[in-house]
Amino acid sequence: MKISYRKKRSLRGYAFISVWLLGTLLWFIIPVISSAGYSFFEFNPSDRNAERQWQGLDNYIYAFTADASYSEYLWKSVRETAVMTPLIVIFSLFSAVLLNHKFKGRSFAAAVFFIPVIVASGPVYNIISDDIAKAVTDRSVSDIYESFLISAGIYDVNSSLLSLAEKLSSQATELIWYSGIQILIFTVSLGMIPKSAEEIALIEGATSWEYFWKVVIPYISPAITANIVFTVINTFTYQNNKVIRRILDMQAEWNYGKASAMAWSYFIIVLVFTILFILILKKIFSWEGE
Questions:
Q1: Fewer CB in a 10 Å sphere around the end CB: N or C, the chain?
Q2: Are 40 and 62 a contacting pair, CB within 8 Å?
Q3: 206 exposed, middle or buried (CB, 10 Å; 0-12, 13-18, 19+)?
Q4: In this structure, which long-range contacts are made by residues 83-86, counting pairs with CB atoms below 8 Å and at least 24 apart in sequence?
Q5: Are the CB atoms for 178 and 238 separated by under 8 Å?
Q6: What predicted TM-score, i.e. pTM, was given to this entire model?
């Protein structure tokens, strides 16, 4: 039987990714399906003789009603995502616009923003954020900070201001740390805008502000959508997320049923949040296109 050249190339392609497909099936798809089933049962996998007990939706009800920590961490994660997503995207776009202009030290600035993407974000970020928090709360640094406030006419400085400074420094670090990929995507998208578009806008008498909103934003709208979706998912699943830690703690206690129910509940909330953002962006950018 004679095989065409195109079919041979297709078979070679499938052979090349066959190991990846097998690994995805064995270590991703099957565990995901299994975890969905686990969420409706209660069992202890450490005891091979133990039988699975059907729980129905009891594990899901437990996650939202009986487990106070999970509910608290869940709504806190939702609030943080709702706040951090716009901040990260706006900061990334602002940084990319600056990097798109020629100035001295541009390559160095781009490298600094991209460092978090290169290094291991989880452990390194924990070390950096801990060091900043310790530096802010350190007594010598606190004395300098307090002296600065007194010189500005602010007296009776209490620990609440130091706590606020610690929180702001931590959030600023987090904002910069999780913006690397978004800045890269925006920078590439801005570089793909044809020069003729800017020239036409200038000929028509458009200001820089009008050029940005009427030309740049529509051109990079796919990048904005991609960055928002990526940021939503990344914020929901970042290293210090207490919801994921709570799920892992339940798993470590051999409560696979409850842990799976919590994980699937969290997944559904992330999915709904992502779809909601996409629908909103679709409305906005379809309106811009009109």
A1: N
A2: no
A3: middle
A4: 84/174, 84/175, 84/178, 84/231, 84/235, 85/228, 85/231, 85/232, 85/235, 85/277
A5: yes
A6: 0.72
Query: Cα separation of 200 and 283, whole Å?
Result: 27
Each residue's pLDDT expressed in tens, for the chain with a length of 290 residues: 677 778 888 888 888 898 988 988 888 888 888 888 888 888 777 666 667 788 888 888 988 888 888 888 888 888 888 888 888 899 999 988 888 887 777 777 777 777 766 665 555 555 555 555 555 445 445 555 556 555 655 555 555 555 655 566 666 767 777 788 888 889 888 888 888 888 888 888 888 888 888 888 888 888 998 898 888 888 888 767 888 888 888 888 888 888 899 999 999 988 988 888 888 887 777 544 44
DSSP 8-state symbol, 53: E
- The C-alpha atoms of residue 177 and residue 175 are separated, in whole angstroms, by 6
Q: What are phi and psi of 155, to 5 degrees?
A: -110, 175
Counting every residue written for the chain, the total comes to 290
Show me where the domains of the chain are located: 39-120+174-289
Whether the CB-CB separation of 288 and 221 falls below 8 Å is answered with yes
39-120+174-289 has CATH 2.40.50.100 classification: no
